Amino acid sequence: MGKDTIILIGFMGSGKTSVGKALSKKLGLPVLDTDALIVEKAGKSVKRIFAEDGQEAFRQMETGVLEELKGREGRYILSVGGGLPLRAENRALLRQLGRVYYLEASVEALSRRLEGDRKRPLLRGEGSLEDRIRKILTDRQPLYEEAADQVIETDSLSIAQVAEKISCLAGSLRAS
Ligand code: S3P
């Protein structure tokens, strides 16, 4: 039954939250988001957690949220923070929780979508946004692929089309 959960992973700006909402509407399932669960629990924004407690504390909270979800009943959709699959422990937990879809997007598409973002601490710093994304994505890409059951190439698709594709894939799995 655990494998019925639809899990969305991918870089910041890859559309996980929007696709999660679209899928939730389409399939009539609740959608959860690890960032939102952490913010609720910590009582402060992701930006503040990074600034006051550091990235490692945030990563620990991500693992904590996944551990708690192991006890959750019923089918749902889960979108996770872009850095959550970096920990091997988290990749193993994701596999236990459900079927993992990697929303893959090019550096160019991500740069367009993330321009002007003020909420994501990792995008701040030296160099152009595009260079920063390229650098982080190059490190993460193999881990996203390792974590994924299925890779969805999103550059040429709308949010609705990505949701449709995942809903078909998840539906055919349930039928088999
Ligand atoms: C992060 C992605 C963010 C959030 C935090 C760190 C990352 O989530 O968890 O800012 O390391 O890629 P989104 O992918 O939902 O933006």
The distinct bound ligands, ions and cofactors come out as: shikimate-3-phosphate
Q: What profile does the largest beta sheet have?
A: 5 strands, parallel
SS-derived structural category: alpha/beta
Overall pLDDT level: 94
Estimate the global geometry from the Cα principal axes.
globular
Element string (H = helix, E = strand)? EHEHHHEHEHHEH
The residue ranges in which pLDDT falls below 50 over 5 or more consecutive positions are: none
Percent helix: 55-70%
Instruction: Count every helix, treating DSSP H or I runs of 4 or more residues as helices.
Output: 8
Distance between the termini: 13 Å
Q: Tell me how many strands there are.
A: 5
Beta-strand content = 5-15%
Order the strands across the largest sheet as they lie in space: 2-3-1-4-5
Q: What is the assembly state of the chains in this entry?
A: single chain
- What Rg, in angstroms, do the CA atoms define? 16 Å
Describe what you observe in this structure:
By secondary structure, the chain is of the alpha/beta class. 56% of the residues lie in helices and 11% in strands. The chain has eight helices and five strands; from the N terminus they run E-H-E-H-H-H-E-H-E-H-H-E-H. It has helices at residues 16-27, 34-42, 46-53, 55-69, 88-97, 107-114, 129-147, 159-175; strands at residues 6-9, 31-33, 77-79, 99-104, 150-153. The longest helix has 19 residues, at 129-147. The model has no long low-confidence stretch (mean pLDDT 94).
